[in-house]
Design brief:
The complex is a heterodimer. By secondary structure, chain A is of the alpha+beta class. In chain A, helix 1 packs parallel to helix 6 (156-169) and helix 1 packs across helix 10 (364-379). The chains are: A alpha+beta, B alpha/beta. Chain A binds chain B through residues 243-245, 248, 265, 267-268, 294-295, 298, 309-313, 401-402, 410-414, 417-418, 421, 440, 443-444, 446, 476-478, 481-482, 521-523, 526-527, 530, and chain B through 1-7, 11-18, 31-34, 37-39, 41-46, 48-50, 52-53, 55, 57, 73.
Chain lengths: 545, 412
């Protein structure tokens, strides 16, 4: 918009580099605004990167919250068009088990469910249980009813990275590992932000007429720093990751939403979740999955897909739902997942400050549209939103595996194909001309040295944990045991900081260790022992408890 | 909570330790091959995500199963790769692969015209044409075909005598003994008869299908496998062991049928026994007596074929050969010969095949034996072509070393 701005002056500052902030940064930049995005850790570090990765059809909300269901199915159809490299059209099933009839969720409920889906615009159709087994052989064979819905899976890291990348391509300045320390206020007007870079230790000030609070669960603190109150409700959701794809179709339970009733095939793995537990704010930054949660998820997971009882679990993790507290419901489930966009000028008399919260991964684009509309209104900008029809970087062409060209060398090209799966058509920008760049660093997830170099150059990577979110490095079966020493060396070299190598590896392995130890038995325990042998031998202190 | 992790091919037990990659003979010699870990468990995760991740480079796997033997976690790496080829592979040289794999279809034809076929397959222009048209390497010495098959020799000369013996076994001779080298079958019958065992053919034995599995001919091979299991069942029900001479046939009948083809062989599996193990057991139990030729003298080097390593029966052969007075036996270091059945015949594999075999060839030359002892027919082709040393099956060595008449008399 304004083109006479100084380096530290922007049209809008967005606080929070999750999917909401990333989407808002993209939308604002596509509408011609000069944008600053500030994130205290890495992008997609919070709830964005700690969920199922389910491309909801909305069916789950249809009976209870028709509005959310309608939003979901609309956004579902949009994401299929604009984020092809992030979305996998697996389809979904809602199954009814014999025991569900006892709890009031038998086939009568199924009918009510289908009617509600259709009313919300979701193409739900009952299918014969035999056809459901044909469609997804791993489904519980005792099922008495099945409904097919247009569910899918979406990779939240990739989706977030694609939004950030497009925002950057449209001029957005992105500061990760940069924490908001205070707002610059003049009277009741927010004029800008004071920030602290956690990596360099530098402090800085940035100015903009509007600041957007898109900090998810941490939005309560951000709002309070500006002098406003937004009551957030931290509800922890735990999930388990299985070692490979057990199912190729999303499996849900056709009943009132409960713990552990969604099984999603995401990229090379399958994820079961979630639980819902109220937690204090202090725990949001370091969540641990309890044995009780693991047991519950496994038990419920086996009801959807009995073979999970014998399937290796790679790790457990947990995220916080950024729900806006609306009442005192102890489960956190009756809270509306609707989008909340607050203009603090009309609400609290604080000028130049907008909060966008509530909602969910699925509706991030709509949330971003609302937030950007609010920003534009304040700035007097009248450009309309185009994000529903503008593909994200990497999304074109349609048939990615066949249309994105594999470099012309004769050997195995799993690494290149896997890059297409992750980066979409942007994989064409990865340099594969040198043999060393075709070498696999992470063999479980087929990440080449070329892709790592690309991620460092284009996707803002500073640590192996960041690299994982862009490339899946170390997310496979061995959880980094056999690749992290290579990846650490490659990343340290690409960053031009060879002295960081050991620190990079330690940070990564400690984080993996945390997720593995929650499910440390069987083959995962063997892998953990192996990991210890490989790395502990070098430096005994590298494993913190 | 979870009792154990169960998965097809023990896929989930993979710890990604990469030990399999250190023993793969192809990986070290062909940069286009991604190696057993990538082609096996790593690739499998991606193939489960989307079959588009099937990589045609898996064709370079020679199915030696050394990866499986090495795996400390019991992962069936080789089976996993074969299974991916069977279910997802595209067949590029359909005519050639069908011809090479259909040993019991091509065999009778070639045997019927053996003199012409052998002459033609030995001629440079013919080899050049085969190379250019269907992709059979022109550098290869083609196996000779016999004008009389083992089965027709046996029916004509030996079958009628067999019922007179006190013990009985069924003999799965395989295509090689039948079409290419009936002498092996003749030696087998001579030794078993001398030890007091009547030899019986199965009711219309068909090729075990090992080459068809490699060629991805799933439908055809399942049919053969089912037939073979059925006829073996009849023999087992009659109280007979199924004695085999080829390690690759044995592995296929015993392990590949249930693992890869999902053919239930549980009724016959425990009755399938490689001849060396069978002989070692009856000899060591004292069931039979042996009379050796007093003047037998030879220097042999034993090469354990890859599929023998996979079967885990090599010690029986070694101990059996060590019983022969006058045989000086050297054990060669375990290396793949590079032939791997039909693999080495394929034009695109010739170079890899020879590079893989080099360490073995050098080892043989260093020992400089009178002959190489080896149970595998395709190792024989490869070693004879590449080193000039003759290769003998242990059964043939026994036939030479035993005083067959005196042995027969002792076991009457």
């Amino acid at each position: 918009m304004a083109n006479n701005l100084k380096d530290n002056e922007f049209d809008v500052i967005i606080v929070g580099g999750g999917i909401t902030g990333a989407g808002t940064a993209r939308d604002c930049s596509l509408r011609g605004l000069k944008v600053l995005l500030v994130e205290r850790n890495d992008i997609a570090d919070g709830a964005t990167g700690r969920n199922h990765g389910l491309l909801h059809s909305g069916a789950r909300y249809a009976v209870k919250d028709s509005e959310s269901a309608t939003e979901c199915i609309k956004e579902n159809m949009i994401l299929r068009q604009i984020a092809r490299n992030c979305v996998d059209d697996t389809q979904g099933l809602f199954i009814t088990l014999p025991e569900d009839a006892d709890t009031g969720y038998g086939l009568d409920y199924q009918k009510k469910f289908i009617d509600a889906c259709i009313a919300a615009g979701i193409n739900a159709k009952a299918i014969d249980p035999k056809d459901a087994i044909r469609m997804e052989p791993s489904v519980n064979p005792t099922l008495i009813g099945a409904v097919q819905v247009p569910d899918g899976s979406v990779d939240p890291f990739r989706l977030c990275a694609a939004n950030v990348l497009d925002a950057k391509l449209h001029g957005t300045k992105v500061l990760t590992y940069t924490e908001l320390t205070s707002f610059i206020k003049e009277g009741d007007t927010v004029k800008g932000v004071r920030v602290h870079n956690k990596k360099t230790g530098e402090d800085a000030e940035y100015y903009a007429p509007v600041t957007v609070n898109a900090a998810g669960i941490w939005g309560q603190q951000v709002a309070s720093m500006a002098g406003a109150f937004v009551g957030m409700y931290p509800a922890k959701g735990a999930l388990l990751v299985f070692g490979h794809r057990v199912n190729n179709v999303v499996i849900n339970r056709c009943r009132k939403s409960a713990d552990g009733d969604i099984l999603v095939p995401g990229d090379t793995v399958t994820v079961i979740g979630t639980t819902s537990t109220k937690i204090p704010f202090e725990e949001c930054d370091d969540m641990r999955v309890t044995p009780e949660e693991v047991e519950l998820l496994l038990r419920e997971g086996c009801a959807l897909c009995p073979s999970l009882a014998n399937t290796r679990i790679l790790r457990a993790y947990a995220g916080v739902r950024p729900l806006v507290a609306a009442d005192n419901d102890p489960t956190g489930r009756s809270i509306s997942r609707g989008i909340v966009c607050l203009d603090h000028e009309t609400r609290d008399g604080i000028k130049g400050f907008v909060t966008i919260t509530g909602g969910k991964l699925m509706t991030y684009r709509l949330m971003a549209e609302w937030a950007t509309d609010a920003v534009c209104k304040k700035l007097g900008v009248t450009v309309g939103c185009v994000t529903a029809t503008t593909p994200l970087p990497g999304s074109e062409p349609k048939d990615q595996y066949n249309e994105v060209k594999v470099p012309s060398y004769k050997g195995a090209n799993l690494g290149f194909k896997a890059s297409i799966g992750r980066q979409g058509s942007r994989a064409a920008a990865i340099d594969f001309t040198k043999a060393e760049d075709r070498e696999l660093v992470c063999e479980c997830e087929n990440v080449t040295l070329g892709e790592i170099k690309y991620a460092v150059k284009e996707l803002g990577v500073t640590s192996l944990l960041d690299l994982r979110r862009r490339t899946r490095v170390g997310m496979g079966t061995c959880q980094g045991t056999f690749c992290i020493y290579k990846a650490a060396a490659a990343l340290a070299a690409a960053l031009g900081k060879p002295e960081m190598e050991q620190k990079l590896a330690e940070d990564y392995l400690n984080e993996r260790w945390k997720g593995m130890s929650a499910v440390g038995w069987g083959d995962t325990l063997r892998e953990m022992e192996f990991m210890q042998k490989v790395y502990k031998a070098g430096k005994p202190s590298s494993f913190k408890k | 909570m979870q009792k154990q992790n169960i998965s097809e091919f023990n896929f989930e037990q993979c710890q990604k330790c990469a030990i399999c990659t250190t023993v793969c003979p192809v990986l070290a010699n062909n940069e286009l091959y991604p190696g057993p870990k990538q082609a096996g468990p790593d690739g499998e995760r991606y193939r489960m995500k989307n079959p588009v991740f099937y990589d045609e480079m898996l064709k370079f796997c020679l199915n030696c199963k050394r990866c499986e033997v090495a795996c400390p976690s019991g992962v069936k790496v080789g089976d996993m790769i074969q299974n991916a080829k069977l279910t997802l592979g595209k067949r590029s040289h359909v005519l050639r692969d069908t011809m090479l794999a259909s040993t019991d279809f091509v065999g009778p034809l070639a045997s019927a015209f053996a003199p012409v076929a052998n002459l033609a397959l030995g001629m440079k222009p013919v080899k050049a044409v085969l190379d250019a048209t269907i992709g059979v390497s022109k550098h290869r010495t083609m196996p000779k075909y016999s004008s009389q098959t083992f089965e027709s020799w046996f029916k004509k000369n030996k079958q009628s005598e067999q019922d007179a013996y006190k013990n009985h076994i069924s003999y799965y001779h395989g295509c090689y003994a039948n079409f290419n080298f009936p002498q092996l079958g003749k030696d087998f019958v001579a030794v078993l008869n001398a030890l007091g065992y009547g030899v019986h053919l199965l009711d219309k034995e068909e090729c075990c299908g090992v080459a068809m599995i490699s060629a991805g001919m799933l439908k055809q091979v399942r049919k053969k496998a089912q037939h073979n299991v059925d006829i073996m069942k009849t023999a087992v029900e009659a109280g007979r062991k199924i004695v085999t001479v080829s390690t690759s046939c044995t592995m296929t009948l015993r392990d590949e049928y249930p693992h890869l083809l999902e053919i239930d062989n549980s009724a016959v599996r425990d009755s399938i026994v490689l001849v060396e193990k069978f002989l070692y057991q009856v000899i060591s139990k004292g069931d039979v007596k042996l009379v050796w030729k007093p003047d037998y003298k030879a220097k042999a080097a034993y090469h354990a074929p890859c599929h023998q390593e996979r079967l885990g029966l090599g010690n029986f052969t070694i101990e059996l050969l060590r019983m022969i007075p006058g045989l000086e036996l050297t054990l060669l270091d375990s290396h793949c010969c590079g032939m791997a059945g039909t693999y080495g015949f394929k034009k695109e594999n010739y170079e890899t095949s020879q590079k893989v075999g080099k360490e073995l060839f050098d080892g043989i030359k260093a020992v400089n034996p009178d002959f190489v002892a080896c149970e595998c027919e395709t190792c024989k082709w490869q070693i004879e072509m590449s080193t000039g040393y003759a290769v003998k099956n242990p059964v043939s060595i026994l036939a030479e070393a035993l005083d067959l008449e005196a042995t027969a008399a002792a076991n009457k």
